[in-house]
Amino acid sequence: MESNQFKVIIVGGSISGLSLALMLEKNGIDYIVLEGYKNIAPQVGASIGVLSNGLRILDQLDCCQPVLDAAEYPVDEVFYRDSRGKLIWSLEDYAKDMSERHGYPAVFLDRRMLIEILYDKIKDKSKVLTSQRVQTIDNNDSGVTVHTLAGQKFTGSIVIGADGIHSTVRQEMWKEAQRLDPKWLDPSEKSALPATYACIFGISEGDNGPEKGTLTSVVNEHFSYLIPSGPGKRTYWFLVHNMGQTFYGSDIPRFTKEEEEALAKKHWDDQLTPTLRFSDLYTTKIASVYTTLPEYVYKRWHFQRVMTVGDASHKFEPLTGQGGNNAIETSASLTNHLVVALRGSKTGTLSTEEISNIFKSVQEQREERVSGLIKASHTRQRLECMETPLLKFLANHVLPYVPKSILLRRWIPVYSAGVSLNMLPMPRKPRDVAYFDERFRVPSSRGIFGIILYAAFFFLAWAGRRQLWTAGKVNGTWSLVREAVLAQTIPLPGGVEVPLRQVYTGLQPIDRILQSLVTVFLPAVANSSAPEQALQSLYFLATMLPIIAILTVEGYRPRNRWTLLASPALWGVLYQLRGIGMIAPIYFAMSIFHSASVGYFTPTSRTIPVSVAQALLPALVLGFVLPTIMMFFPLQDSLSSRQVFIALWQPAPIYVALLTEIVSRGIKWLGRSAPVRLDDQFGTSVCGDLPYLRIVYAAVGGISACFHFALIFSWIASGSGFITRALIPLDSFGQVSSLADGIFIFFRNDFLLVAIATMLWCLTSTWDMYRMGISNVSWQVGCAGLVFGCTAVGPGATAAAVWYWREKTLSRTSFGQHPSAST
């Protein structure tokens, strides 16, 4: 695209300024860069961390590999140490984790090195002028004119201020706004810039630095260190301290070299590692600066034809390294909006109103993200400076036990929400986590609907308690159970009295529980006078099979580790004793609580060990299907033997959990399984557990569907009232005439409640993937599909089908196609 009538004046040869220049050049947009220093890349003693979200854009600009080469050593180990240099916590394989998850590692290099790389990539060097410090800016309806201290003036269509926290462009923009529209700016902005911390940052060179590829944080009370290793023999370091109060605006102090040296002497003997002191770094420094660390997001980034980017609009505290990376992001956002507007312009230029709308859109896109990241950076700095007794306790006693998986999940929105260039091809980098602009839509929160979902599940749990236990008490079912246990006989329809077995395990407390459970189950299994009751029991258990399979799989997800969802056996005990219609909604509520964030929906957090996926189907068959068959299998002396099989069936969910663990360990021991990654025909990365899990869902769904078909055929054969008799209790609180009738009411309520809760869970899961941009199946389509599935194949098979689809969808790492250059 060529746009010779539109010209951008970029003030400041900074990272944001030069990256913007390179972006404009690649899109054929005319520009000029005005740099105040005599050299384009002066050595000011600063280093910079380039992270995944920044490297991704630099990769589009052909700058990524030069940055990686210049940095030499990606960060591979992260250390947190206390004031004595003792290790508190460490994170190994950081480079591998970042590259696998986000496509790029984190690297540190001199700031001037990155500026030189950006400058070298600019083809027309005549457009980058040095010794051109801006003095004033004139704004009019057709363009802008910039006057410099060198006595020159430059005319263009817009001015972009990439000139840092003390931006001259911002000052000129404020003057113009005050003259033309005083209400545009908040008067307090001029003194709103806050600074709580100050920092000596520097570069040392020598053999006494930390090991290469390391990033060390040292926590102390009211001060901290950040020490990244650099290329060659370089070490970068930051000594950050709390100034004792927060200064604002013009009251923010500036420090002399003598003040820097005095502060350095104060910390001379600080232990950074067991073998490294601060004095070791300071005495080998080649550059250092002592400065305050303002942190702020300005309320207005633009006025008419003038806009600020980078530190001039959003200033970061350096601890998290996001300042430079987000400066590149804002330049990319501005380029995206400019290119779209200019491509749609018939004249090749833009009006002041159109430009203002572009600037407004850029700020709207970027403001929330940078505000959140700046706040997070400040929070982390407070933690590392242990500003309160609570933060000191967290740093010393909680941080060492934070699982690596939790941190990796929390970092996903930090990197994946980054902006990229819409019009340039995105180099293909294998990674597990899709960036937000590669998804069908930007992930969003559940909002008020999340609260509604929690309320719905807890209402279902309450309804379960009411319909299962309160109703059983009111209608006399539980009195009949107690009477049968005390009389040691179980009454069946037709006047049959079956002696209740007294011994099952030989352990009296367990046998007493089993006696009650056998008394409850035997009438449902052996009621030959009401065939719909036995069919309902089989149908109910067939519906439970996919649910048990899903709960077992969820128990092995990395994302559910350290939660109660990781214990399927525990949930099995609870719903066997209290009814799955009451317990399942509680499980589902806990599941949606843990799945609220974007970090939950990543391929690596979805994947379970391949050996577990291979073991699951045999475990389900041996642990649940076989005991269920034995419970209904006709045998001689069937009523007596059936009690044994009913008792044997009760721990079936626990059998499944134990057998899954045993069989999977056996598979691993035999060497029959290995965690592999495959590529499907579309080049989409999938996990080795996926084929086995899909077999499991197909099998359990097929079994459940067969019993649904049996129910439908029985309905057709028996008349219109069969479904009502089999599934719907008309009066749960009316006095029952027999134990069998009371138990039938209990199981019908139990089934209806778990079916409703499971379908709501499936709908929530479908909607979650839609709101996370992982699928294009909306909740309306999902709801229609669930209704059709329940009618056609039943709730159990429908749940299995949802998880069958869900596994494949969640294993993908890209969902749409990143916009690329078009002709």
TrEMBL record:
<comment type="similarity">
    <text>Belongs to the paxM FAD-dependent monooxygenase family.</text>
</comment>
<dbReference type="GO" id="GO:0071949">
    <property type="term" value="F:FAD binding"/>
</dbReference>
<keyword id="KW-0274">FAD</keyword>
<keyword id="KW-1133">Transmembrane helix</keyword>
<feature type="transmembrane region" description="Helical">
    <location>
        <begin position="608"/>
        <end position="632"/>
    </location>
</feature>
<keyword id="KW-0560">Oxidoreductase</keyword>
<protein>
    <recommendedName>
        <fullName>FAD-binding domain-containing protein</fullName>
    </recommendedName>
</protein>
<dbReference type="InterPro" id="IPR002938">
    <property type="entry name" value="FAD-bd"/>
</dbReference>
<keyword id="KW-0285">Flavoprotein</keyword>
<dbReference type="Pfam" id="PF01494">
    <property type="entry name" value="FAD_binding_3"/>
</dbReference>
<feature type="transmembrane region" description="Helical">
    <location>
        <begin position="538"/>
        <end position="556"/>
    </location>
</feature>
<feature type="domain" description="FAD-binding">
    <location>
        <begin position="6"/>
        <end position="346"/>
    </location>
</feature>
<dbReference type="InterPro" id="IPR036188">
    <property type="entry name" value="FAD/NAD-bd_sf"/>
</dbReference>
<feature type="transmembrane region" description="Helical">
    <location>
        <begin position="447"/>
        <end position="464"/>
    </location>
</feature>
<keyword id="KW-0812">Transmembrane</keyword>
<feature type="transmembrane region" description="Helical">
    <location>
        <begin position="779"/>
        <end position="805"/>
    </location>
</feature>
<dbReference type="GO" id="GO:0004497">
    <property type="term" value="F:monooxygenase activity"/>
</dbReference>
<feature type="transmembrane region" description="Helical">
    <location>
        <begin position="695"/>
        <end position="717"/>
    </location>
</feature>
<feature type="transmembrane region" description="Helical">
    <location>
        <begin position="751"/>
        <end position="767"/>
    </location>
</feature>
<dbReference type="GO" id="GO:0016020">
    <property type="term" value="C:membrane"/>
</dbReference>
<feature type="transmembrane region" description="Helical">
    <location>
        <begin position="644"/>
        <end position="663"/>
    </location>
</feature>
<keyword id="KW-0472">Membrane</keyword>
<dbReference type="InterPro" id="IPR050562">
    <property type="entry name" value="FAD_mOase_fung"/>
</dbReference>
